[in-house]
Structures are given as C-alpha cells and as structure tokens.
Amino acid sequence: MIAYGTNVVGGVTPSKGGQMHLGRPVFNTVQDGVKYTGANVSIIFVPPMFAADAIMEATDTGVEVIVAITEGIPVGDMSKTYHFVKQKGVRLVGPNCPGIITPEESKIGIMPGFAFKKGRVGLISKSGTLLYEAADQVARQGLGVSTAIGIGGDPIIGTTTREAVQLFMEDRETDGIIIIGEIGGQLEPDAARWIQENGNKKPVVGFIAGDTAPKGRTMGHAGAIVGGVEDTAQAKKNLMKECGIHIVDSPAEIGKRIAEVL
C-alpha cells in the first residue's frame, strides 16, 4: 500500500507501541493511532478469533471507513459487530475481502495494483481474483476503473452489493458499473431491484459465479451456498436481466460487454 502511494500513517499491535516499522510508528491501540496521526481509515489483518473486537475498536475511534481483510470470522461475532458498526454510522468493507482501490491514487487492501488502470468503470465483486480479472479486461478494452470494491464473500458483510451500487450511481467519476456475484444469499437480487426502481441511470454488467455448484454445499466462500431455488446462479441471472442488467455467462466476456454498453 505504501509503495502504491497510499498515505499509511501507522500500525497497531498491542504491546509493541513505540516501535517503528516500515518507517511508520506502531501504536498499542487504534485510539492512540487516530489521536496522534489523524487517521480516518483502518485496515484490519487481525486473525479471525480477534478480528470482530478489532473492528469494534476501530469503530469506536471515529474513523470513517474500516476495511476488514480477515477471512473466517465467526458468524456470531460478525452479527454483533455488524449492528455495532451500523449504529455508529461507520462504513465497513468486508470481511473476507481484498479491499478498495482507486487506481493511481490509493489502495487500501491486498489487490495487485498494476492490474488497475484509471478510468470511469466502477467494479463491485464478492471475489478477489475475479475483481482483478475484470480490472485487467477493462484495461484491455481501453477503459479503466474509477474505484473497485471487493465487498467480501462471508455471509455477513458490512457493505452490500446494493449499497456499493448506490455509491457508484451517485459518483460523478463513474459512467458504468460491473457487478461480480456468486451463488448464495440475496445481495445481487436486492441490488438489481434497487437499480430497476431507481431508473437504471447507468449501464450495469453482471456476472454470477457458480452455475454448476451442487445445492447445499459451500463453494469457496462461506456465503456461497445455495439454500433455495432463488439462490442459484441461473435464478439470480434471470432476475438481474429482468431488471435491466447486462448479464454475461463467462467471466471472459466482462470487459467486452462493458465496452459495448458504454
């Protein structure tokens, strides 16, 4: 992140406060870090059993955005954490996500920055690797990315597909949107209905992973499990088409399709 140009002002590791690492100060608590640096974003790499507490600690400091990279946070922990963060009005991205990147400006996460070129396409993805793949395809079409958000693949996440879509619809630097979803849950249908209800203001291209996934089995992400007929890839694609989203059946078609609709 530092090499990409992100203004990383410090780190937090309990009992290691006062040290320096990568030329930045280390603090014992997030509260101290925010107090002495004025940081407004926290990125969390804390192991699963402690990550929920880390998110809530960051929330209490008054930072505006929290990005949780950690995978495998217990659902019970995230259920409490989700409501705590929402009550405080803080934007949580993740957990189990690659983070956020605005190309050539700032990267808060673990994505390969070289794959992202500056432009006017907004990317939203549950999958990290498919996010990078889509960014590369967009660049190969002579386009670029305004901002890319990896929302995460866990059952309970801070920023939903619909919320991310709304942010891009209101963003003056974004002309089109790509949604990369997967089987399980109702995030993509909720986003599709919102897009239709709000007049399809910008073109949206969608891809849903998991066409061949067997019912009842978790596939990759903890949230990628078909619990009913509406959770299947085909059901989601059908609904998204009805709501005016341009659906592709292969991730290889994402870049070409967004170029066509723009």
Write a structural description:
This protein has 262 residues and is of the alpha/beta class. The protein has eight helices and 13 strands. The chain has helices at residues 30-37, 48-59, 75-88, 128-140, 161-169, 187-197, 233-242, 254-261, and strands spanning 11-12, 20-21, 24-27, 41-44, 65-68, 91-93, 99-102, 106-109, 118-125, 145-150, 176-182, 204-209, 246-247. The strands form three sheets. A seven-stranded mixed β-sheet has the order 8-7-10-9-11-12-13, with helices on both faces. Helix 2 (48-59) runs parallel beside helix 3, helix 4 (128-140) packs across helix 8 (254-261) and helix 5 packs parallel to helix 6 (187-197). The mean pLDDT is 94. It holds the Pfam family Ligase_CoA. This is Succinate--CoA ligase [ADP-forming] subunit alpha.
Largest sheet descriptor: 7 strands, mixed
Low-confidence stretches: none
How large a portion of the residues is in β-strands, by DSSP E?
A: 15-25%
Gap from first CA to last CA? 31 Å
Shape, principal axes of CA atoms: globular
Oligomer: single chain
Mean pLDDT: 94
Number of strands: 13
User: Structural class, judged by helices and strands?
Assistant: alpha/beta
Helix fraction by DSSP (H/I, runs of at least 4): 25-40%
How is the secondary structure organized here?
Blueprint: E1 11-12, E2 20-21, E3 24-27, H1 30-37, E4 41-44, H2 48-59, E5 65-68, H3 75-88, E6 91-93, E7 99-102, E8 106-109, E9 118-125, H4 128-140, E10 145-150, H5 161-169, E11 176-182, H6 187-197, E12 204-209, H7 233-242, E13 246-247, H8 254-261
Parallel strand pairs: 1-3, 4-5, 5-6, 9-10, 9-11, 11-12, 12-13
Antiparallel strand pairs: 2-3, 7-8, 7-10
Helix pairs in contact: 2-3, 4-8, 5-6
Keywords: Ligase, Nucleotide-binding, Tricarboxylic acid cycle
GO molecular function: nucleotide binding; succinate-CoA ligase (ADP-forming) activity; succinate-CoA ligase (GDP-forming) activity
Protein name: Succinate--CoA ligase [ADP-forming] subunit alpha
